[in-house]
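Budget justification note: compute hours in this period were largely spent on complex prediction jobs such as the one shown. Inputs:
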Amino acid sequence: MEIKEKVKIPGLDTSVKTLVILDRKDANALGVNPLDRVVLSKGRKKITCVVDVDDGTLVDSGEIVISNEVVKVLNVKEGDAVDVSRRGELISKKYIRKKIDGGVLNYKEYYEIVKDIVQRNLNDLELTSFIISMYIRGMAIQESANLSMAMVNVGDKLSFGKRVVDKHSIGGIPGDKTTILVVPIMTSLGYTMPKTSSRAITDPAGTADREEVMFNVDLKLNKIKKIVKKTGGCMTWGGSLTLSPADDLIINIERPLRIDSVLLPSILSKKKAVGSKYVVIDIPTGPEAKVKSIREAAELYSKFKRIGWKMGMDIVGASTFAYQPLGHAIGPALEAREALENLMNPSTPDLVAKATGLSAMLISHIEHIPFKKARERAMDALISGRAYKKFVEIARAQGAKVLDPKKIAVGAHKKDIAVRASGYVNYISNRTIVTVAKIAGAPFDKGAGVYIHKKLGDRVSRGDTLMTVYSNSASRLDEAVSSSSGAFKIGRKPKLPKDVLLKRFAR
Amino acid sequence: MEIKEKVKIPGLDTSVKTLVILDRKDANALGVNPLDRVVLSKGRKKITCVVDVDDGTLVDSGEIVISNEVVKVLNVKEGDAVDVSRRGELISKKYIRKKIDGGVLNYKEYYEIVKDIVQRNLNDLELTSFIISMYIRGMAIQESANLSMAMVNVGDKLSFGKRVVDKHSIGGIPGDKTTILVVPIMTSLGYTMPKTSSRAITDPAGTADREEVMFNVDLKLNKIKKIVKKTGGCMTWGGSLTLSPADDLIINIERPLRIDSVLLPSILSKKKAVGSKYVVIDIPTGPEAKVKSIREAAELYSKFKRIGWKMGMDIVGASTFAYQPLGHAIGPALEAREALENLMNPSTPDLVAKATGLSAMLISHIEHIPFKKARERAMDALISGRAYKKFVEIARAQGAKVLDPKKIAVGAHKKDIAVRASGYVNYISNRTIVTVAKIAGAPFDKGAGVYIHKKLGDRVSRGDTLMTVYSNSASRLDEAVSSSSGAFKIGRKPKLPKDVLLKRFAR
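Corresponding output:
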């Protein structure tokens, strides 16, 4: 059953992006009810749309109102004729229901769901139910691998040979700009590192948010291929790519809900899709990080290792110290500046130690050499300036915007926060600092954020500046500053946590 | 922080009903990001809206685009000034997260969530996560009572004294038009029965869908009060009422997802809100019903009983025979016709037995008389015509449309389905019949549905009509008919299920 309708275009920008409104008579003729789906076609172009039904106020029989998204996809204008037919039930909805009800899904079932996510056949309610059920029900190793491979196979795939390396931090430490150092270190040493990153979900800045301050991160797949072939690496945003395209659609729902339900498949599918063979997983560990203990980190690492293995990837990993922000800067522009400064002149101890340490884990594993020796190679790449040179080469290939740290624009408004009593910095609340940076406007306001002047163990005197808050909104700045109490704990005597900076896990 | 903006009204009918679009500069000044909420106010009118941010293509600084819903609530016109301020975080989002994470919520926490559902502060993603987490995590008795009372107290409440009775079927049997007989039976016997019903969720017809064929069911609260005071009862749709108003908002999300997560609170809050004291719960039981065994029905009844008790209601209940549709008719108009015919002349055995049986359970419990005697009273009310007289009185008070069964319009197209081999009807698939009726267009197409000519145990000869399918859409009719195989199983020898028509549970 198919009917012809004349399109009407009132300029609808709806949240259900692909909405059509049918006259009730036509809806009955097609046999569709509100919330059913119809397929509109014009020549070879097709799109699935959500139906709303009207009783003669908006459309007459023979007419169909279409939203702007539909106009764009079908490339039609007012009065054009389109074919409209009813779409059958999606099999993927059954599989989502199976997951909700506690079932275990196989590869084919995940493939159907992921395909329908990417083709926008599933609406936000269906996608949300899937995400929440994944979050609550969880997934075993094989199931995670099934979902991960489904996410990979629904999208495009890249391939750059055997020595393709990658890195991922599971997050939870503010100010982690390590990737911006690791990519040039590894590529300057001859490895291939096609690094795609995401934007912030629950943090004040994701790696793509930081990088975007300095160069373009929103690149097409062909451009990425060219850049990686030429320079050996790239630093791009994974979201607009057709590599594991379901990932960002899922994140779009997860972000406002503050849910992180497909953590491992989301990460590993992106790595697999760019053709990575060796991946280092960074698991920040601390009282306010996502992962609280080295034991918990080891368990998580083991899952990465096992799922990755089923996907044909070789994974190493470490628990890293997350009792305080990494370096001093939190927020896209502030962090970009700090990363750049350290590429030019490695000077922030924890940042340099972490970047060279993670790089060395990959090198040591691939080359079968001791970690210590591998670390020397990474450090040498950084100190010699070869990594910086490589960074500039990649950044230029990606259309560099600002590569002078002094010219990176930070928030127009700023306020210093001073310490009230003298003593030692014994605790820094990552969570409070994240809240302050987010209230200040990060990551959407790129100049917003926090600069930490004192770190764990530092001696402070009454009146010293502990941190400076930046924002481009005066009102947000005020609110952020007033939310900053509890960010630092000052004690009379120094008291440092015993955890190590980098705890490598045995393979 | 509050800024003044001039409204622009392009005629946006968005799915996120209360959407505003701000210029990026203004958004930064307010300190809001996309998906944040702002409060718009004009005089004493206020509304919470979802923010989208634009870079100068749709709005300039000082302007705000508002969707039609916002226009309506604030009663503004193009160019009017409104005050815009940022809204703080909702505490209810924390409680939803607590439920997702497996926590148990108290009354206050549910109250916050329900209040924010009703005030439209929670968006569809948040509401979906709440519903799915309730479905997966479940609720203990006290928690269900907490949610139920929160649902009651967020809305309006009615009160009609002590002898207020109610009835609810948990559904799962097609063609259940019992309520249309029970209300007039009970009210003709002097009880008060302010019955509100819902529209179909997963069935071809809900009681409100059936009733709407004969009289108006969409009444205002004041009108209901008047009608109940005058006639002793009513038969209305609960959805547009402000009685437990969260219920239908939740159902709007549940329906497309085919999830039924707040079954008991949804039912009991509606009963409590109309002031019901005695409630009979009908639990249809059969191989294709929601409830498969009498044991399972007894467990469900026990939950109703205990939650109801905590809410100050006295509940009786029964498992009822659901191995085949009730009566012959499935679909709003067909069912209305059958109910009406039985009020005028009680002739459909299972329908009459069920309606008088459920009525008798209430009577026996309230009056402390034996069930058998109570049933005689109910039967007498029906056979004497007093119940029919009462029905007409209530229907007229509700603006009767059609009260002559012959004048009830059923689907314009129909098709008979004949039996291929002679024998006995040994099985009827409720699920297949529901599917056929829904494909035919029920409940949206009121005339669509199925009429069953043969029931369990009937002897059939090759060529006899088993059922007739009705629809107002020729294409839907064809599709429905082609989905009807497997609706009946015919055997050489008769084979009847042993379950009883009405299994009353001990109090």
